[in-house]
């Protein structure tokens, strides 16, 4: 892919923004209700970089004009902080009211040039590292409680003949166990037990629904909840949803963190952060960044593995896991002996990056290259990377549309990791106070590997049905879940 020769600028960035407001509304409708929004523009303009409006847009949200980046050569400019600013672009072209975050601009919205960025990022990294010997046992304990819930469902009597009268072992009762609510509880339990020394799922002190009710209005302007346009457009995409509607949910979360977070909040003191600001940032790290991310990533992992049918992936995974663990536990050494599991996790992060959109505003004029041509970008222009197409770039990845669990195995596979961008940086990069790469990068991969390995110590195999909508999230039912023989 590398191209040392500088390409010549031969044309302006293609694409039109259309008439004021109208152009933005038309692009928004096409983005939410049309098909192949990016692909059809890419093909029309013959370019992986083009101008387009991104939701939500005026009149009640700021300017929607962006330059979309869809290939592996142009997208990494979003990591180059000499060329782009990442200030106030976490959710896109708009910024949710700071009411949602206790009146503070929390870390995710800060540009790395703002002095507070380094203070808060070091604090966030301290939260992760100071608990390093507790994450794994707490995650495994939380997972065990989750299995107990699934197993209790499995043990319910099978009443109907729907599933061959239960003749085939591993088939399920009438009310099959569901993947997502239990994964959500596992995440919430191990995160709060570790960071706050208190399990938030106990007595439903906090719930996935409550947390998502607080998150949803913040991302509503760019969210496709699958509702018809006549409902979704006025309700979610036209004007900001006021914080007041979910204030009770947020206050409940903050009260729980305040009551149990003394140890975690005190870690902010050496970084010069006031306790109240630390508290609201902590809530955001744990509930938005981590819980929000894991409850997208984990179901995607299970679903991709469930749907895979080219070889018996689940048999290979469980053999690899059980061989690696032997008589010991799921520790670092055992994880190191699970290359297929590790590659599977990376492949899910490649094919379904949990956060699809990344923004950055050009700070200076510069020339941006795709694989085949170059464009002039002007200071002040908003750049927008749509990651699902970038990590399916055929110039870098063979059969990019295919889920290939072995893709990242071996030396060749390891080399591809620099093209995996889910954490707002290459998978070979390191988050630091000088960049905007996700501080949870290594943590997320680690806990996901541990959870999946642990799952195969308890179960032999599983199969998921089609998702249905329940409350604020979509849910996969198990159509098969076989306990370890
Ligand atoms: C930044 C994804 C877990 C804390 C980001 C960004 C992405 C991301 C895409 C960059 C956003 C942007 O500015 O364009 C994810 C996903 C996660 C996850 C998918 C889980 C599956 C975590 C965890 C933490 C965390 C575990 C920490 C406890 C943050 C913070 C930032 C960030 C604080 C802003 C970084 C900075 O300002 O330098 N994350 N993240 N995230 N993430 Fe994560």
Automatic annotation (TrEMBL):
The keyword Lyase applies. It catalyses: (13S)-hydroperoxy-(9Z,11E)-octadecadienoate = etheroleate + H2O; (13S)-hydroperoxy-(9Z,11E,15Z)-octadecatrienoate = etherolenate + H2O. InterPro entries: Cyt_P450, Cyt_P450_sf. The gene is CYP74K1. Its cofactor is heme. GO terms for biological process: fatty acid biosynthetic process; oxylipin biosynthetic process. Belongs to the cytochrome P450 family. Divinyl ether synthase involved in oxylipin biosynthesis. Catalyzes the conversion of (13S)-hydroperoxy-(9Z,11E)-octadecadienoate (13-HPOD) to etheroleate and (13S)-hydroperoxy-(9Z,11E,15Z)-octadecatrienoate (13-HPOT) to etherolenate. Has no activity with the corresponding 9-hydroperoxides (9-HPOD and 9-HPOT). SUPFAM superfamilies: Cytochrome P450. Gene3D superfamilies: Cytochrome P450. GO terms for molecular function: heme binding; hydro-lyase activity; iron ion binding; monooxygenase activity; oxidoreductase activity, acting on paired donors, with incorporation or reduction of molecular oxygen. It comes from Selaginella moellendorffii (Spikemoss). This is etheroleic acid synthase. The lineage of its organism: Eukaryota, Viridiplantae, Streptophyta, Embryophyta, Tracheophyta. Keywords: Fatty acid biosynthesis, Fatty acid metabolism, Heme, Iron, Lipid biosynthesis, Lipid metabolism, Lyase, Metal-binding, Oxylipin biosynthesis. Its EC number is 4.2.1.183.
């Amino acid at each position: 892919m590398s191209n040392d020769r500088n390409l010549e600028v031969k044309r302006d960035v293609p694409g039109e923004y259309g008439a004021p407001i109208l152009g933005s509304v038309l692009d928004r409708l096409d983005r939410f209700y049309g098909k192949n929004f990016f692909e059809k523009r890419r093909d029309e303009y013959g370019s992986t970089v083009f101008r387009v409006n991104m939701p939500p847009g005026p009149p009640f949200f700021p300017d929607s004009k962006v330059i979309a980046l869809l290939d592996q050569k142009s997208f990494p400019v979003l990591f180059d902080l000499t060329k782009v600013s990442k200030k106030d672009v976490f959710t896109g072209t708009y910024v949710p009211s700071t009411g949602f975050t206790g009146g503070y601009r929390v870390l995710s919205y800060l540009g790395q040039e703002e002095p507070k960025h380094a203070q808060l990022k070091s604090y966030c990294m301290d939260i992760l590292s100071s608990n390093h010997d507790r994450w794994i046992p707490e995650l495994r304990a939380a997972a065990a409680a989750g299995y107990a819930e699934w197993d209790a469902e499995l043990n319910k009597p099978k009443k109907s003949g729907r599933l061959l009268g239960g003749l085939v072992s591993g088939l399920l009762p009438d009310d099959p166990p569901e993947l997502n609510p239990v994964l959500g509880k596992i995440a919430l339990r191990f995160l709060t037990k570790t960071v706050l020394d208190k399990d938030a799922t106990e007595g439903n002190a906090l719930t996935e629904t409550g947390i998502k009710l607080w998150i949803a209005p913040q991302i509503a302007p760019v969210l496709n909840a699958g509702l018809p346009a006549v409902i979704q457009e006025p309700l979610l995409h036209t004007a900001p949803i006021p914080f007041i509607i979910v204030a009770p949910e947020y206050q409940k979360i903050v009260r729980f963190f305040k009551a149990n977070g003394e140890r975690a909040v005190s870690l902010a003191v050496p970084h010069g952060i006031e306790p109240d600001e630390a508290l609201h940032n902590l809530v955001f790290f744990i509930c938005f960044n981590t819980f929000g991310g894991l409850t997208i990533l984990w179901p995607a992992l299970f679903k991709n593995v469930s749907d895979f049918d080219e070889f018996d992936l689940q048999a290979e995974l469980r053999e690899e896991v059980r061989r690696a663990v032997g008589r010991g536990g799921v520790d670092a050494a055992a994880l190191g002996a699970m290359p297929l599991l590790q590659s599977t996790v990376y492949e899910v992060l490649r094919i379904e990056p949990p956060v699809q959109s990344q923004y950055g505003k050009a700070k200076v004029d510069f020339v941006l290259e795709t694989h085949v041509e170059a464009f002039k970008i002007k200071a002040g222009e908003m750049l927008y990377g749509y990651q699902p197409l970038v990590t399916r770039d055929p110039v870098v990845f063979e059969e990019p549309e295919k889920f290939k669990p072995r893709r990242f195995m071996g030396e060749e596979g390891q080399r591809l990791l620099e093209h995996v961008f889910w954490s707002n940086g290459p998978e070979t990069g390191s988050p630091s106070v000088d960049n905007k790469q996700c501080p949870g990068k290594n943590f997320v991969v680690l806990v996901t590997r541990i959870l999946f390995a642990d799952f195969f110590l308890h179960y032999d195999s599983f199969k998921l049905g089609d998702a249905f909508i329940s409350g604020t999230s979509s849910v996969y039912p198990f159509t098969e879940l076989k306990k370890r023989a």
